[in-house]
Here is the input.
Amino acid sequence: MGSISKSYFRPDNLNSALEFLTPEVKVLSGGTDFFPERVGTDFAGKILDICSIPELKEIVETEKYWKIGATVTWSDIIQKILPSYFDGLKLAAREIGGVQIQNQGTIAGNICNASPAADAPPVLMTLDAMIEVSSSSETKNIPISDFILGNRKTCLDPAHLVTAILVPKLKNRTASHFFKLGARRYLVISIAMVSTVIEIDQGKIASARLSIGACSPVAKRISDLEKRLQGSSIENSWEEQVLPDDLAELSPIDDIRADAVYRKEAALIMLKRTIKETRMKFFS
Amino acid sequence: MTETHIQKISTEVTINFTLNGTRSQYRGSPFKRLSAVIRDDFRLTGLKIGCDAGDCGACTILLDGKQICSCLTSISSADGKTITTVEGLRLEQTTRKLQQSFAKHGAAQCGICMPGFLIAGASVLKKHEKPTKQQILDELGGVLCRCGAYQKIIEAILDANNPSLETKEPEIGKAVGFRYPKTDGMTKLTGEEKFGADSIPADALWLRIIRSPHDSAHFELGDFGPFLKKYPGIQKIMTAADMPFNRFGVYPHIKDQPVMAENFVQFKGEAIAALIGEKETLLQVPLEDFPVSFQVNVPVLGIEAAKSETATVLHRDHADNVLARGKVHKKNIEKGFQESAFICEEFFQTGFVEHSYIEPEAGWAKIVGERIEIMVSTQTPVMDKMELAGVLLCDSEKIRVIPTACGGGFGGKLDMSVQPFIARAAQLTGRAVALVYDRPESLASSTKRHASKIWAKFGCDHNGKLKASQLFAEFDTGAYASWGPTVADRVPVHASGPYYVPHVKNDSVAYYTNRHPAGAFRGFGVPQSTIAHESLMDWLAEKAGLDRLEIRYINALREGDATATGQVLENSAGLPQCLDALRPRWKEFLDEVVCFNRVNTQIKRGAGIGCMWYGVGNTSMSNPSTIRIGISEAGTITLYNGAVDIGQGSNTVLTQIAADALGIAVSQIHLVMGDTDLTADAGKTSASRQTFISGKACELAGKSLREKLFAALGLSVTDAGNPLHRIERENNLIGVRCNNRFYGLDTSVLEPDSNGDVLIGEGYFDPPTSPLNSEGQGNPYAAYGFAAQIAMVEVDMELACVKVLKIAAAHDAGKAINPMLVEGQIMGGISQGLGLALMEEYVSGQTENLHNYLIPTIGDVPEIECMIIESASPLGPSGAKGVGEPGLIPTAAAILGAINHAAGIRLKQVPVLPHRLYHELRKKKGGS
Ligand SMILES: Cc1cc2nc3c(=O)[nH]c(=O)nc-3n(C[C@H](O)[C@H](O)[C@H](O)COP(=O)(O)OP(=O)(O)OC[C@H]3O[C@@H](n4cnc5c(N)ncnc54)[C@H](O)[C@@H]3O)c2cc1C
Ligand code: FES
Ligand code: FES
Here is the structure.
């Protein structure tokens, strides 16, 4: 079948990978989004498989960041001992698909795929994560909120690879939570999800980062509420400060999983519950 | 240790890995799914392909000890690694024991999902020596079982450390009633079992079908020349013009479905052409390139559209788009309502539901001399044979159907799917030809449970005694007839519920629309109408001030009562016993709800109940089975069983029945299943009929063979009737031990038949029924199953999410030939009923994979307590009736009742998706 040209490259070092990358090359990581899109067909084109590159497999602690390599899987996150602000990410990881998908799928792949219902984006937003992007000529860090542009759209330039996710370290006491709403127990894509990371300093909220996923093309931070919560005492209820208007910027859609009205109103309830749970964590 | 040759940008690579303990090497394309490599290149077909998309877990393997989906991994990822598939589990003591425990607990039904569960189970035992239930759920959550006895899988893993996992054989003559592990169970747990896609020869040609992307359209095929030139791997394109008679259908007089559409398509997913070629090359053909142009029409979608005056007519001889009507009218409905003190009426709505067997349609065909042999996953080999003879315009004796193991059917493999394609392609090419549907294709083209709109009205007197019941059900039957008439017939018979009602008026209509054909699915429409009558029973109980169980108890059909069709039930009406058995549990549920709800506001609990009855076998139609048992020259006893085991366990149950009828150990019986050359017609595996009908035929065959053996030995037939005279083997002779003396059979003096058997016992049973008259009065079935189920749910009153906490189910099985298998059927039915209630709705074009079409996972199905009631039918073998469908029928009704109890909302539409319940809760809040 001469009309279909195929090639496949699975390098064992990053430099070879970056050299191979040209705009028409498709990157393959855990494959959990790649293969389901190709049921009943063969694969045409050039593929760069990044799973044998040792430096992309690691989670390393640097002075400023936790650096999560591009091929770190959901299971790797669950198993790694990490500070409490990663609790939300761990909870999200445990609820991805089933264990098979957790063992194969990567966090980086999840954001590159940029599905509005993907679980990593809202969590990474509350972690203020930076996406490390590399090509053969440069390496740059892009804030997660600039990285995902829309439904299945990122700012990733052609011939660039996401090489890591950088999570800035937090010094204060933190608690973090994640709430996924789905129509069954396992193997389910979120109807909506809420992620929180809250820092406490001297008994008061030093910073609150809250986000909601699956209710807009890109997950959204709830900034007005975050500002209002700042300075709130740990002794008082926080969820009472949540107002329906806080979700004004969300633009959920109707689909087979749920309708828009439900998504939005459920998100509000979930946000209150998640904030409450996050606060409870400071007492446990 | 990545080897450098993968460093090269290559189109062919060498990859080394260890496969089940053996060092193995692969050479070929670097980028093939690992699942395909293991199955096709290494011919290990234990792992299954249910979706190729990560959604079912059937392809799960261990890669360096971690469970992964082999369908989401390229072969290159295996370089230097260790792979364990189900075939490798026998290598380790713990996993061998796990397999034994699965067998002992009856975890496998059809078994197609078992390789995935065993690998996931091995993974959990690797992580935790004694796992908790939660750890098991979390580790197994990525594997789906549609047969649905998840509880038995969990029990098997919890018990995997048990030192005594061997089962003892029952005493001779006591096989019936014994919890016998499936006779074919172990092969389903080692990966040896061959399903539809597992025995395809490596040199077979393959088919790929071009399907319509439109609901309704005229089309014109273009010039195939350039297409064939561009893709020279395509050896032939088959179209409607290649079919000798391009129509089929399950009814002898309704052949309305083309194998491939002629010049217009009636539903999205309908076949328009088929490509024949080598497997790998066909996969590379982009189907969008196929030369065809469509002129799209306005489709008829939904019942209302089909009824409209201006609706397009789908089939010329059905100008009103009505495929079939059914009715059952008894006495005077007006009078019944006049005599009623309380009357309730309501509209209900249900969507299409997909069978979602984990094994997509699959099979292959080959030419053997003048004949065609079809190896296919089917529920009905003889009907396949007759249908193929119709399509190919040949003598049916020219066709041999050999059913493979069936990885789930539930009614969806009663219609032909791959059969006419592979048969005709084999004829045209002279080669073996295979076709395996991918998941989207299976979902788009296969039949569904009918979508329905039901109006029902029930009335009772002051004491809660039913006086009248009226129900009108409209069904969306899709583009072709399939089993639509069966649903239209069956529903009016059952629509008054398992109750005595003096005045009845039940009607049904099935409308053609431009949807996938709706056909048979566990219950043939009765689950839908059960939602309606059970909801009204709850409401009447409320009005009459009665407990919901008690109103059912006082109205339950009892022996001596006349049904809606005027049939007097002389025996075997076990609903009162089912309710008696459940009553203590029901009270516990109600108490628990009160206590819980007193202290909780955000989450509320509720309990609900559903009852059902179900006529076993075809409605008012002859549906006989013939079973043969033979003794060969070598003294081997073979059960020639034409009934296909689709996971429900007929292979085991019939062997148990045969063993007792003959007076021999179960293990002494060999089995041949379904091969149309070797077995007699035992009818379809549907309508819960195999245990009752084929079971009876099997009992008669066993008796007959025993008598023939006694006669051949010169013993009297009276002696044959004495169970103490055992059939035994001594010095390689089969014979009878009678009064301490062994009479051996000298087979050499007898003439063997074509199967090598010297003695044959044959049994035939056709349950006595009578046709329904113009008012729907008559005796449509010879036996009825009865059941009641109660459910407890939790409703999140803010987010409107429902969780089923527990279910107790009491089923009148007549006699449980194998209680473990009966429990499996009940649990599996409940799992599907839960799906119907809470999550399943097939929306054409939107739910065409198992990512979006949700069926219950291991975490969704609650603990189920099974209570088996045995109100024997004098007709069935040892009194047995059918249990295949009843498990599903009352579940949704019980769950809806429980939601109403918790949240105070009488739901009229399933599935109760969170957003649907949310809007109801909001309406209620707004209203009060
Ligand atoms: C059964 C099932 C259940 C699932 N459940 C969930 C769920 O609950 N929640 C959820 O959010 N997701 C879910 N997913 C989706 C999927 O598992 C995740 O999105 C996963 O994290 C993707 O990672 P991957 O490594 O498999 O990506 P891949 O499939 O390898 O790649 C995904 C996309 O990203 C690109 N890409 C990957 N890595 C890079 C990189 N480093 N640089 C540049 N581009 C890159 C690829 O080219 C591709 O387009 C599920 C998937 C399946 C099959
Ligand atoms: S076939 Fe791999 S998960 Fe279904
Ligand atoms: S036994 Fe699990 S799908 Fe049939």
